[in-house]
Amino acid sequence: MGAQPAFTGHPVITWDDLGGFPDGVEIGMIWAQTTDGVIGDGADMPWYLPEDLKHFQTTTLGTPVVMGRISWEALDPRYRPLPGRDNHVISRDAAYDAPGATVHTSLPGAVTAAGLSALELGVSTVWILGGGHVYRQCVPVADRVVVTDIACGAPERFTVRAPDMRAETDFTVADGPWLGSARGTALTGEHPLRYRICEFTRTTGGRRTRPARSSGSTGTTL
Question: Can you give the residue ranges of the DHFR domain (predicted)?
Fold first, then answer.
């Protein structure tokens, strides 16, 4: 395995850092964002979209998931750890306590461990759940990125942004149709909320052979 970048400084990771990551497992990233790319303020999101919560649950259930400490702490305590998933949390503090999850002090270590877990579980995807720095670090090794694009704004305090995947030339995008949510709300007042699910698939760069894709399951709220 290559040198493991420290979590501090937020350097991107490459496949040289993931020498122990198993073949046949893909790395996916999933998030929701405003049309301007805002994903939250580190603790909350500027919308409530039940359809996206269901989509997130269906997509990630049964798989290993990787997230930073702040994203872990932002989870509703009722769903921490995320049920039905092998939770991996990144923290600079090796003594950090994340009950129900495995703590790692490096992002490559967390992703590699999650990949080995996927192999043991018989699933073919590891999902990266954020936050913003973690997403940006993982773009060079991501095979697939699933983004819920929400047609709303965000108050000024919401400053955390996702990577601009449309600027990534190693991916092609399939944009889903715009849909309406009768129950969705936004802090900026848009109602009904409109959203679409966009899937970015790596076509160049990354690994020479793309792994098989896994299907999602259904289950609990998150």
Answer: 26-202
